[in-house]
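Anyone up for a design puzzle?
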């Protein structure tokens, strides 16, 4: 009797326990993953919930629903029927429910609550709260392009920096500064720093500077740093360095002149010396000079001369041997071709002309333009003639003195002989009568 009573009590306790399990169904939703984590404002995120059955019996007709709440936006049905859960179906065997939601693009950073509720059959809904991390990616600010009209030494020009916000959140208190410590530039009328209040995601902002290149700045590209300092929407500060190039360019300038010539008449050979002066502020590199033949002259020497580099205010000379054509006196244009490279290694070919005046031979002698060799020959010939004439006159005077002519005739002939012409008359007339 007593044993039967104990058995009945145990059965009642088991039945009560079973009834309690059924009435207090233990389902445990858990947010096991968000992808990406954190999610950026304006992006989509996948939420994965694991539904555990914590009881030893089967659960039929389980529904779950994700409840809408700012800043999350649903693009698919919020209620999902996951069917039945087997006894103790949990952990690796649990049912996983996935939701894809969007985050409002204007959402601030932070952990936002999102609510999932569930029910068994037609029972009451049970709500549970989870957190989703929303965080903007690192604020990315960069220089998209540099616009400048270019500089020449000593002149002022504008430099426009186009700064883009490559991130997905607002950046503010943007400070743009150009480092001028190691390059030949100075601010002109403004400082080397500009402040921009804010730049929206994807937007561009302009930072314009007026700079002046030093008067002695060489032509070329000058690299320098641009420092960007700014805050993101949460107040985090950033510093970013970028490198830009500023161009200083002065076009090469030179003058060509005839420095010296030994050619002054047509049909003659001689040397012409040309001078090349760098009159600009920039260097001229790898200079080649070529004298081009024309119908007025031929080039007897090598027509090409390599000069090398010409620094600012430098002068070099080149020499050519030519023969002028047999023409009437006139001005002849010497055609000179220059090939050189500038400071940016750009090659340039230019042609210039230099005037060469040709005179008649008589004018050339009168102006003292004949060559020294011609002058010396003329002097030697003239001196030789004078010596011969003088010797002939002296010989005739001696001969006259020894002549047996009467004294008065001898004196007269000697006076005539001294004139030079008289020596010839004496030789042919009086000398025969000795």
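Challenge accepted. My sequence:
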């Amino acid at each position: 009797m007593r044993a039967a009573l104990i058995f009945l009590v145990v059965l009642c306790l088991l039945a009560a326990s079973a009834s309690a399990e059924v009435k207090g169904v233990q389902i445990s939703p858990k947010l096991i993953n968000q992808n990406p984590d954190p999610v950026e404002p304006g992006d989509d995120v996948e939420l994965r919930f694991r539904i555990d059955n914590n009881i030893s019996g089967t659960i039929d007709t389980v529904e779950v629903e994700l409840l809408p709440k700012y800043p999350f936006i649903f693009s698919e049905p919020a209620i999902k029927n996951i069917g039945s859960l087997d006894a103790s179906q949990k952990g690796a065997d649990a049912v996983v429910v996935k939701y894809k939601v969007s985050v409002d693009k204007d959402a601030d950073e932070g952990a936002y609550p999102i609510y999932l509720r569930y029910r068994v059959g037609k029972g009451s809904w049970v709500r549970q709260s989870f957190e989703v991390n929303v965080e903007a990616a690192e604020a990315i600010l960069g220089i998209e392009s540099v616009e400048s009209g270019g500089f020449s030494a000593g002149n002022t020009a504008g430099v426009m920096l186009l700064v883009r916000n490559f991130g997905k959140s607002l950046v503010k208190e943007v400070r743009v500064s150009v480092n001028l410590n190691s390059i030949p530039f100075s601010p002109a009328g403004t400082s080397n720093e500009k402040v921009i209040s804010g730049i929206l995601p994807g937007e561009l902002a302009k930072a314009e500077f007026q700079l002046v290149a030093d008067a002695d700045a060489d032509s070329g590209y000058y690299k320098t740093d641009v420092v960007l300092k700014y805050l993101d929407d949460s107040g985090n500060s950033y510093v970013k360095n970028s490198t830009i190039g500023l161009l200083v360019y002065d076009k090469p300038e030179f003058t060509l002149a005839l420095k010296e010539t030994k050619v002054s008449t047509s049909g003659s050979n001689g040397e012409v010396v040309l001078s090349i002066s760098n009159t600009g502020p920039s260097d001229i590199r790898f200079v080649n000079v070529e004298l081009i033949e024309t119908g007025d002259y031929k080039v007897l020497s090598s027509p090409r001369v390599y000069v090398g580099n010409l620094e600012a205010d430098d002068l070099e000379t080149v020499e050519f041997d030519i023969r002028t054509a047999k023409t009437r006196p006139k001005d002849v244009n010497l055609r000179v071709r220059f090939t050189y490279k500038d400071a940016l290694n750009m090659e340039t070919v230019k042609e210039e002309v230099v005037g060469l005046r040709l005179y008649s031979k008589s004018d050339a002698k009168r102006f003292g333009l004949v060559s020294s060799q011609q002058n010396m020959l003329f002097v030697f010939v003239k001196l030789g003639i004078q010596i011969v004439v003088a010797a002939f006159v002296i010989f005739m005077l001696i001969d006259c003195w020894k002549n047996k002519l009467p004294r008065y005739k001898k004196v007269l002939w000697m006076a005539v002989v001294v004139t030079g012409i008289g020596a010839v008359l004496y030789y042919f007339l009086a000398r025969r009568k000795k």
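A detail worth pointing out: The radius of gyration is 55 Å.
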